UniProtKB/TrEMBL annotation:
It comes from the Bacteria. This is Aminotransferase class I/II-fold pyridoxal phosphate-dependent enzyme. The keyword Protein biosynthesis does not apply. It comes from Gottfriedia endophytica. Its cofactor is pyridoxal 5'-phosphate.
C-alpha cells in the first residue's frame, strides 16, 4: 500500500545519522498533507482488514508458483513483486510489448538498473487480484515466454 517515497526502520542511532547525513533528506521538503493522510489510511485499512494481508501473500505464492511451473527464473524474491528475469534488454522490452498485446501490463527493467544480461519484467501482485486474473496473466506469460524462447 505504497503512497510516496519510503521509510527507514532501524535502531534510533542509524535513523538519526541518516536524517542528518543523507543528501536527499537535506534538500527535500516534507510530504504534502494528503500523502500523510493517505499513509495513515493505508495503515488503518491493513489493521482493520487483516484478510488483505493473507490474500496478498496467497496471491503472490499462486503467481510465483505458476511462473516457476512454466520455467521462468524468478530469482530469490519472496515478495508480491517477483522479478521475471528475461536477459538481454531488447528481448526484455519485446517481452513486455507482447504481454501488453495480450492485455497484461508489466514493466521491463534493464541496464543500468540491473546488469546488462539480467533484464527483467516486474509485476506487482495485489490483494485485489482474483485467481482468474492471475491465471490469465500467467497464461500470457507462458505464451509470450514460448514465443520468444525464454522458456521451453
Amino acid at each position: 500500500m505504497g503512497v510516496l517515497d519510503g521509510y527507514v526502520a532501524s535502531i534510533q542511532t542509524l535513523i538519526d545519522y541518516l536524517n542528518h547525513k543523507r543528501r536527499p533528506f537535506l534538500f527535500s521538503t516534507s510530504h504534502p498533507p494528503a500523502v500523510k493522510m493517505a499513509c495513515d489510511e493505508a495503515i488503518n485499512v491493513l489493521l482493520e482488514e487483516e484478510e488483505l494481508i493473507d490474500r496478498i501473500w496467497d496471491n503472490a505464492k499462486f503467481f510465483k508458483d505458476g511462473l516457476n511451473k512454466f520455467g521462468f527464473n524468478t530469482g530469490k524474491s519472496e515478495t508480491p513483486v517477483p522479478p521475471i528475469i528475461i536477459g538481454e534488454p531488447k528481448k526484455t522490452h519485446e517481452f513486455t510489448d507482447k504481454l501488453l498485446q495480450n492485455d497484461v501490463f508489466a514493466q521491463g527493467i534493464i541496464f543500468p538498473t540491473f546488469a546488462k544480461d539480467l533484464g527483467r519484467v516486474r509485476t506487482i501482485v495485489t490483494a485485489q487480484h482474483t485467481k482468474e486474473e492471475l491465471q490469465e496473466a500467467l497464461n500470457a506469460f507462458g505464451k509470450v515466454g514460448k514465443e520468444l524462447d525464454v522458456i521451453s
